[in-house]
Write a structure and sequence with these properties.
13 strands; 354 residues; seven-stranded parallel β-sheet; Rossmann fold
Length: 354
C-alpha cells in the first residue's frame, strides 16, 4: 500500500514529531511511505536528535500547505491508499482513507458544519497518544478513538549513579501557547530552595532543547542558576541523553504547574516520554500529578506525584535522606518503564490499516 504522512509541526523537535516519524519508519518496512514536507533539512535535525531511520521513506511536496490548492490536493492524494495526519484540530479533505492522530487535548475540532461532518465521516480511525488525551477528546467532542502509546526504546547504560536531579524538555514548545510550558524556571527556583535549606552534594541538571532564535531568552533563565550547583545540557541527542538518564537518581517534571488545567488541559504534559525514559534509566520520578503523568506513576510505589512546590521539595528530600527507599523505588520505576516500552508500537500502527 501507499501511505502518506503529514505532521504540521515537523520543524519542531518534540515528542509528537518523534511519534509520527517512528510511525513512518514502522510502516515503511511493509509499505511505500511518503512524508509531505517541503524542507528536507527539518527532517535531518529530527533524525539526528532521535536516531530514526527514514531511508525507505520518501519526501514529497507538502500537499497540506495552505497555498496548495484543494483540488490539486484531492488529485494528489488519490495516489495514496491512506493518509495519516497529526491533527491540530482541523480535518483535511483527501481522496483516500484518512487516519487522524491527536497528541494533546484540543480546544476545537472541526465538526460543526455540514462540510466538517462530511470530513469527519471520512476519518477511518482517530488514535491518541495517551488516555489523558483520549478522555478529553471523547468527553468534549464525542469522537471515539483508540490509544497507541508513544514509541519508547529503553537504552540504559551501566553507569554509576550520581547525586543528580534531572529534568528534560524543550525550552519553548511551538504548538502550545505558553512561554514556560515545561516550567524549567519553577524547578530552578525549587532546587535553589533545597540548597538554601541545607541539601548538599546534589546538583540539578537541565537537559534542554533550544532553538538559535531562543538563545537570548534562554540566557535570562540560565542566569537564575548562577551560584548554585545547576548544570545545563543543550541540544543533546537521544543517545547522549541516556548517559544522564543512567546517572541521575531523581527526575523532576512540572509541566502544568500553576495553570488552569480545567480551561487549558493542553498545558499539562500529554504523556511524558522523558519521564518514562528517565524511569528506564533508574531515576525515581517526582512529577506533578497532572495530565499523562498520572498514567505513568503510582504515587509512593514507583515514584511520587506532587501538587505544590512544597510537596515537590518534601518528597525529594524524603528520597535523598532514605537511600533504601530511593533504591527500591528506582527498581520499581524501571519495571514500570518496561511496560510502556513493550507496547508493540509498530504492530499497533500496522493494525490501523486493517
Amino acid at each position: 500500500m501507499k501511505i502518506g504522512i503529514f505532521d504540521p509541526y515537523l520543524d519542531d523537535l518534540g515528542g509528537g514529531e518523534k511519534y509520527m516519524m517512528t510511525l513512518a519508519q514502522c510502516l515503511s518496512k511493509n509499505h511505500e511511505v511518503s512524508v509531505f514536507w517541503d524542507r528536507p533539512e527539518d527532517l535531518k535535525s529530527l533524525l539526528s536528535r532521535f536516531s530514526i531511520d527514514l531511508r525507505s521513506v520518501k519526501i514529497e511536496k507538502n500537499i497540506f500547505d495552505e497555498n496548495f490548492p484543494l483540488v490539486k490536493r484531492l488529485r494528489e492524494s488519490r495516489h495514496s491508499d491512506y493518509v495519516i495526519v497529526l491533527s491540530d484540530g482541523s480535518i483535511p479533505l483527501v481522496s483516500c482513507k484518512l487516519l487522524l492522530h491527536i497528541q494533546q487535548p484540543l480546544q476545537t475540532i472541526q465538526k460543526k458544519s455540514i462540510l466538517d461532518k462530511f470530513k469527519l465521516s471520512r476519518v477511518k480511525t482517530v488514535f491518541c497518544n495517551s488516555k489523558f488525551t483520549q478522555n478529553h477528546i471523547e468527553n468534549r467532542f464525542g469522537i471515539k478513538s483508540t490509544v497507541i502509546y508513544p514509541p519508547i526504546k529503553l537504552k540504559p547504560k551501566n553507569l554509576k549513579k550520581e547525586n543528580i536531579i534531572l529534568t528534560v524538555g524543550r525550552f519553548r514548545v511551538k504548538n502550545v501557547r505558553n512561554e514556560d510550558y515545561k516550567k524549567q524556571s519553577v524547578l530552578i527556583d525549587e532546587f535553589k530552595k533545597l540548597v538554601d535549606k541545607g541539601i548538599k552534594d546534589w546538583k540539578f541538571v537541565l537537559a534542554v532543547s533550544v532553538w538559535e532564535k531562543e538563545l537570548k531568552d534562554f540566557a535570562l533563565m540560565r542566569k537564575k542558576a548562577n551560584g548554585y550547583p545547576i548544570e545545563f545540557l543543550i541540544n543533546k541527542s537521544n543517545d547522549e541523553l541516556w548517559d544522564i538518564y543512567s546517572k541521575a537518581k531523581i527526575y523532576w517534571h512540572a509541566t502544568g504547574y500553576g495553570e488552569n488545567l480545567e480551561k487549558y488541559p493542553e498545558y499539562a504534559e500529554h504523556f511524558g516520554i522523558s519521564t518514562v525514559e528517565a524511569m528506564g534509566g533508574g531515576a525515581v520520578p517526582v512529577v506533578i500529578g497532572a495530565g499523562g503523568q498520572i498514567e505513568l506513576i503510582s504515587d509512593g510505589e514507583n515514584g511520587f506525584l506532587w501538587n505544590s512546590p512544597s510537596e515537590l521539595r518534601e518528597k525529594t528530600v524524603k528520597l535523598i535522606k532514605n537511600p533504601k527507599l530511593l533504591e527500591n523505588m528506582s527498581f520499581k520505576a524501571k519495571k514500570r518503564a518496561e511496560y510502556f516500552a513493550d507496547q508493540n508500537f509498530c504492530e499497533k500502527v500496522e493494525s490501523l490499516l486493517i
